[in-house]
């Protein structure tokens, strides 16, 4: 979700914020895709032409690119993404809606379900603003709520709330800046990162939990992540080698987005210095660029791929774009330039 942050901003950031307010809200009815409630249960995936210039994004290879559309009023604004099986997706929006479907190789959308999360109807949008999800080993879904800084655990069918917590380590996070990104690490711990400053030139608060973070008894270790100018953190996912892949987003004038994908090593997390990452790709050109806010690992170990989803903010000038990206062969983790400078 696009948001401000409680730090001084430069003139460019102020202009960007003003542009966002002008374009995204309050919006005139003609700018909204869903001015009237519609519960038609259908969705379409349209392939985005894969031009030669778009086949590689830095060290990433674009394997698939889809534009998702639906007349359903709850479809859109996707701020979190998970895969529950090969090509079976779970999307969660900043309005508390979910979409579950299977995507065929030719773009067929099957087994579509669009439903609100339990206990999210009849409350204000700020209290049902989900920005992150992660899947527990038994299939339970953990969701991070912005503004309230609450974490909830749901059963795999998304029918019941199994637990909830408001971690102490997240109590002072700005209401509109986290928990934006969440993943279960390879060693069983859980990582949650706040969105941080929109410019990406400052630090994001982050915390590691020793167990599922919706457990009020979970032990918390707080630290800071420095995006080193990549943009605000929007999501994170754990790779099979134990590292994590992080998505960052910057708004650029007049109305566009730059999304930076980077790799970081959780073994380097420390309370003594900032954690950092290495850029592997930047999405900044049409027709693929948009407000990417969700990332998930493809279950096929032979692929070495991730999927990313964009948040269209329910606006007419943005799209829901789903990309399948092949990661580069990763070299052994080493110090970032920022870490070397601190030595």
TrEMBL record:
Q: Which InterPro entries match?
A: N2O_reductase_N (IPR011045), Phytase-like_dom (IPR027372), UCP031900 (IPR014567)
Protein name in the entry: Esterase-like activity of phytase family protein
Q: Where is the Phytase-like domain?
A: 74-313
Coiled coil where?
none
- Pfam families given for it? Phytase-like
Domain of life, source organism: Bacteria
């Amino acid at each position: 979700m696009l948001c401000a942050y409680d730090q001084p901003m430069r003139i460019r950031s102020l202009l960007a914020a003003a542009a966002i307010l002008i374009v995204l809200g309050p919006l005139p009815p003609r700018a909204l895709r869903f001015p009237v409630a519609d519960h038609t249960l259908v969705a379409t995936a349209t392939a985005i032409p894969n031009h030669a210039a778009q086949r590689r994004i830095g060290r990433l290879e674009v394997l698939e690119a889809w534009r998702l559309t639906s007349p359903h009023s709850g479809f859109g604004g996707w701020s979190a993404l998970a895969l529950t099986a090969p090509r079976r997706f779970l999307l969660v929006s900043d309005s508390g809606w979910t979409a579950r479907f299977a995507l065929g190789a030719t773009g067929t959308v099957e087994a579509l379900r669009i439903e609100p999360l339990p206990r999210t109807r009849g409350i204000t949008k700020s209290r049902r603003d989900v920005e992150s999800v992660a899947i527990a080993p038994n299939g339970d879904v953990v969701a991070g709520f912005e503004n309230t800084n609450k974490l909830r655990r749901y059963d795999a069918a998304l029918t019941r709330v199994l637990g909830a917590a408001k971690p102490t380590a997240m109590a002072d996070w700005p209401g509109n800046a986290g928990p934006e990104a969440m993943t279960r690490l390879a060693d069983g711990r859980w990582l949650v990162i706040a969105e941080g400053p929109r410019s990406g030139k400052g630090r994001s608060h982050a915390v590691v939990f020793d167990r599922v973070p919706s457990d009020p008894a979970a032990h918390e270790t707080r630290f800071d992540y420095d995006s080193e100018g990549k943009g605000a953190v929007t999501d994170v996912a754990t790779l099979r080698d134990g590292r994590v892949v992080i998505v960052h987003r910057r708004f650029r004038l007049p109305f566009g987005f730059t999304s930076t994908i980077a790799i970081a090593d959780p073994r380097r997390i420390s309370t003594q210095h900032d954690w950092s990452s290495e850029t592997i790709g930047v999405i900044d050109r049409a027709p693929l660029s948009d407000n990417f806010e969700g990332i998930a690992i493809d279950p096929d170990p032979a692929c070495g791929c991730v999927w990313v989803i964009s948040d269209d903010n329910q606006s007419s000038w943005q799209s829901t774009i789903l990309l399948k990206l092949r990661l580069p062969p990763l070299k052994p983790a080493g110090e970032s330039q920022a870490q070397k400078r601190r030595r």
